[in-house]
Amino acid sequence: MNNIVICSNNVVEGSVKYLDHFFLEKVRIPIAIVDQKEPIFLGEENGGNLVLLKKNAFSLNYRDKALLFEFLNRMKKQMSGEDAMYSAIGSEFVGTVIKKGINVTEINVGDRVIPVAPYPFHFNKSLLPGIPSNTSSKRYQLFHKDQLIRIPEHMPDEIAAAFTIAGHTIYNIREKAQIREKENILITSLKSNTSLIFAEAIKNLDCNVYGLTTSDNFGEEFERLGVKKVFKLEKHLTNLMHSQEITQFVRQTGGFDVVFDPFSDLHFGRLIDCMGFNSRYLTCGFSGQCKTVEQNNNEYIGKTLPEAIPYLIIKNISLIGSCLGERRHLKQAINDYISGNFNIPVDSVVSGPELSYFFDRTFNDPARFGKVVYKYDD
After folding, report:
1. What are the residue boundaries of the Alcohol dehydrogenase-like N-terminal domain, all occurrences included (predicted)?
2. Hey, which end of the chain has fewer CB within 10 Å, N or C?
């Protein structure tokens, strides 16, 4: 079965099924399709609680960018002589159960499943919390039954392969935000996948949703997600109140009641002055995750945290961090998908040998709008 991997620079044509490359932060990264055979599975391993999956599709997230460079550095350190090295990549997937342990009763052979990633605690105390796989492109993979959840029959693979992290993260943040009627919500980095999905998750709430982005495009797409107005972010601004348009908005409304910011190191110091009394600032990440990347031009701009604290105190602003969520958040997202109240914006679905397009579209292409999913076709 085909298996998508990143690989060391000494991999040559003929040693793999297909060899390609793409560039990330000016670094050339070899990628390949290799063959993976189905592993032997007896059904009694780990107390009979394991499930063997064959992956149907997978997708990459912002965190995978950092993991990709980590894998590359690890391969460089571990390489000896001319030995070629490979690593699967990816945090999300959908797979079909092909075998299961003797004590697995909730999941059956033939079921399609996605990973469960509860954090900071796993409901099964014997399992580590968080994302269960950093190698989701691996075609065959074993999981404990409590690391998986069945999906509805009518959910297509391209949606399922991008569902887990969004379901946990966004529904946890939506709960913490405690959005009230008629409140003004600002979503930063609006074109990022996380922000698009947050907009999708709150589009049916009775609130006013605004966006902040450097992009000049996608006005109609944002409007379909329920975004009332999009503010253009000029990269050089140290304070959003230096924007006449935003200043006028704050004077008319008293400021934003909720700010969702997926990249706190890009926006936090610039937007504190735009927030209203008793408002909530929520973040689930930061852009500077790739510590191994030399080309990182995202410098922190705006008030530092010590400079911002007086504003937080005077305005009673709640500063809320969030990472993933509980199993119930993912289940709620699935239920809302079933009822038609939630979906995952998908930019494109890639199959076959279009590896460079898949990776480049995921990480580099400014025209991307939503998740890019790789779907196995063999």
Report:
1. 50-117
2. C
